[in-house]
């Protein structure tokens, strides 16, 4: 018996929900790609990371921390929660911290989703918005975007007329990059059953917050009597993806206390807590990165449209591009050129790739490789 085979004994022990789960696709590994294709430069444009990295303040804050490696971190992330509570104008009891915001998504599902519970999300969606509810035995209904990649208010109203345990949606959308606009956001909130938990995943908040029509979810939800949570992360605009830290703002302290019951006490390591605090103190760094990305987003969208491909209007640090061909094939061809992107596999979107905006050089590198792969010669 080989270690990679599935011994029947394990298969019969595992919960059926787990055996059937789709796999999360983390994208190709840069080192393997380098070796496999004999490449010197790899543009990793697959995980929506910040090409400009983290603030110098983070490095300064972490250096002295090596002395404290032997002690457990603060299980309540008190300093960071205090700082976030001040910035956001909410009480500290309403803030929860996760080992990445994906950890909070997982905790929400562990605490609230049981066998047969219905979760409504959007299609196409972030993989974990489907995987975590399914893992708990929930049912996931996906509401498609309408033509032109916009939020389909009528379809959502219809979907939310049925009993629903949780509404789970990213705004801006990953993988599409579009936003639910202010008016639509109100429609969504009104349509959601009063006893449903509303989870708004704002992983790309910092890229969209200045845009007209991007709803200020925290103030829109402030007077809702229902339970809700808004999720944000230090992985994207703050450039700290490696450290794994994100946060949630809850409607009520009680929601945070519920998550504490399923949370492992030391889910957030000390380096991550310290780095997040330092990163918050350097908003200039975030603003500069967001501005550079906005510039690249416009420039690259135009280049890609010029060769005849459709690109969704993005409010994030990535582009969702219709290649018109099988995306897995295109992604493999790009990989051979040293560019890693994510091919989309969800039904109806099999010709799309999601490309994370990188440095201007890497974006050019991507565009040249794309033209080559599509056999298109840029003017
Ligand atoms: C990247 C991403 C996350 C995960 O962020 P982490 O804080 O790194 O776990 C969550 N939701 C969406 C929609 C994302 O794109």
Reconstruct the topology from this structure:
Elements (H helix, E strand, L loop, with lengths): L7 H6 L2 H4 L10 H8 L5 E2 L11 H7 L15 H11 L6 E4 L2 H12 L5 E6 L3 H9 L3 E6 L8 H7 L6 E5 L11 H10 L5 E5 L3 H4 L8 H5 L6 E6 L12 E5 L2 H10 L7 H11 L2 H24 L3 E2 L6 E5 L4 H10 L2 E2 L1 E2 L8 E5 L3 H14 L6
Parallel strand pairs: 1-11, 3-4, 3-5, 5-6, 6-7
Antiparallel strand pairs: 2-8, 7-8, 9-10, 10-13, 12-13
Helix pairs in contact: 4-13, 5-13, 6-7, 6-12, 14-16
Bound molecules: pyridoxal-5'-phosphate (PLP).
Question: What does this 3D model show about the protein?
Answer:
The protein has 379 residues and is an alpha/beta fold. Helix content is 40%, strand content 15%. The strands form 3 sheets. The chain has a 7-stranded mixed beta sheet with strand order 2-8-7-6-5-3-4, with helices on both faces. Strands 9-10-13-12 form a 4-stranded antiparallel beta sheet. A two-stranded parallel sheet has the order 1-11. α9 links the parallel β5 (166-170) and β6. The longest helix is centred in the C-terminal third of the chain and has 24 residues, at 283-306. The chain is globular. It binds pyridoxal-5'-phosphate (PLP). Pyridoxal-5'-phosphate (PLP) is lined by residues 48, 100-102, 126, 170, 174, 201, 203, 233, 235, 241, 246.
């Amino acid at each position: 018996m080989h270690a990679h085979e599935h011994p029947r004994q394990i298969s019969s022990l595992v919960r059926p929900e787990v055996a059937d789960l789709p796999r999360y696709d983390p994208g190709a590994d840069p080192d393997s790609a380098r070796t496999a294709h004999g490449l010197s430069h790899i543009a990793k444009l697959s995980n929506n990371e910040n090409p400009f990295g983290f603030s110098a303040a983070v490095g300064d804050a972490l250096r002295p921390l090596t002395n404290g490696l032997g002690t457990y971190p603060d299980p309540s992330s008190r300093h960071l929660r205090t700082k976030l509570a001040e910035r956001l104008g909410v009480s500290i009891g309403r803030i929860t911290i996760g080992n990445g915001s994906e950890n909070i998504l997982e905790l929400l599902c562990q605490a609230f989703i049981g066998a047969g519970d219905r979760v409504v999300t959007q299609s196409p969606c972030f993989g974990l918005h489907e995987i975590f509810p399914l893992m708990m035995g929930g049912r996931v209904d996906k509401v498609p975007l309408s033509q032109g990649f916009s939020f389909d208010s009528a379809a959502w109203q219809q979907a939310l007329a049925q009993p629903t345990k949780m509404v789970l949606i990213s705004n801006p959308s990953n993988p599409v990059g579009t936003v639910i606009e202010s008016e639509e956001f109100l429609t969504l909130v009104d349509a959601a059953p009063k006893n449903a938990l509303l989870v708004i995943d704002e992983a790309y908040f910092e890229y969209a917050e200045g845009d007209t029509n991007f709803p200020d979810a925290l103030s829109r939800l402030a007077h809702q009597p229902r339970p809700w949570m808004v999720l944000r992360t230090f992985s994207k605009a703050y450039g700290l993806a490696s450290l794994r830290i994100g946060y949630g703002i809850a409607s009520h302290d009680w929601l945070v206390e519920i998550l504490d019951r399923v949370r492992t006490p030391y889910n957030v390591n000390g380096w991550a807590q310290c780095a997040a605090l330092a990163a918050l103190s350097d908003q200039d760094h975030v603003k500069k990165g967001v501005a550079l990305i906005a510039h690249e987003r416009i420039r690259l969208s135009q280049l890609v449209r010029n060769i005849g491909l459709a690109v969704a209007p993005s409010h994030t640090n990535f582009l969702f591009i219709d290649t018109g061909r099988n995306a897995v094939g295109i992604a493999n061809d790009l990989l051979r050129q040293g560019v890693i992107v994510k091919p989309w596999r969800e039904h109806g979107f099999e010709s799309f790739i999601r490309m994370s905006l990188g440095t201007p050089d890497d974006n050019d590198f991507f565009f040249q490789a794309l033209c080559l792969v599509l056999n298109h010669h840029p003017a």
